[in-house]
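In this section we walk through a basic example: taking a raw amino acid sequence and producing a predicted 3D structure, encoded as discrete structure tokens. The instruction is simple. Fold the sequence below.
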Amino acid sequence: MTELMEQAPAAGTAVPAAHAGVVGGAAGAAAGGTVVELTMQQALNRALADALAADDRTLVFGEDVGRLGGVFRVTDGLRRRFGARRVFDTPLAESAIVGMAVGLAMSGWRPIPELQFDGFAYPALDQIVNQLARMHYRSRGTLPMPVTLRVPSYGGIQAPEHHGESLEALFAHVPGLKVVSPSTPREGYRLLRQAVADPDPVVFMEPKSRYWDRESFDPAAEAEAAEAAATGPGSPYTLRIARRGRHATLVTWGAMVKRCLEVAELAAEDGVELEVVDLRWLSPLDAEGLAAAVRRTGRVVVVHEAPRRAGLGAEISALVMERCFDALRAPVARVTGYDVPTPAGPLEAHYLPDADRILLAVQAVLEG
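The resulting token sequence is shown next.
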């Protein structure tokens, strides 16, 4: 590792053309601006491969990401394509993984470390909060932290304890960290490319229950869109309107976007048109875009998997009240996880927001 820290390539150095493109499987047909159908797992794999190909300073590392290709195979084939110096396994020590990323970033590299599961982030909080988030500020701007911390997140796969946490409020609360969570394969590719290009540390929360969702898109076009968002005028940290509606607004992110779109389809059968807002960036929040969406309907339901108390939904509710009080026709409603530890196995289905709970909240704001 000392050798790596002493040999960071110059900025903008690219790997040979033979290494460019996508790694593995169905994604292999995606070269040359072609529209392809990819799962989110494949889209993230493509984004990592393209980031590694674009800049020789980019490194991917974590527990089992090299030889195994990651628990969810998001890094499958990257070690074989780019070599063990740029894609490598680490000990089972999350604090060391993040600490290593901080040191590498200080030495000119662009690390993309992975914490294997969301609950495994807790042992690394010292490094995340006290080092990763603060180093740029502490050094008065002389030490940028272009680190993208990938964290497979949320529930939905009935995993054991510590494998289905929703830590977005914790990360979003820390000054110096940016937090983003994709909801679809296209968003996964675009937002990961955007995160890797960001000069600040980004916590990239991947909804693991959506790894196998499929979508058709053009990765080359999405790479251009990510670059335009990062370098063009205006803020790159914008929300996405996943569905237009006029009666009420569902505000959500990550895995719950698909759930809210399903609810909107059910509501449409009764003539209720729900707008679904995918926040995407949880820190910084797109306050202006959120306010505009709220003003279109005047009724808001915030949906997230994390516990209700002090969850990100509380911050969103306060923001809506501060900016849109005159437009609200009912109090903001929240549909969340419960204030208990995230349950393991089949009990998870009783914990996560489901269609019935969301529809009841919609009914309440419509009648409010």
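Looking at the output, two observations stand out. The chain has 14 helices and 14 strands. Residues 1 and 100 are 8 Å apart (CA to CA). In the next section we compare this with other chains.
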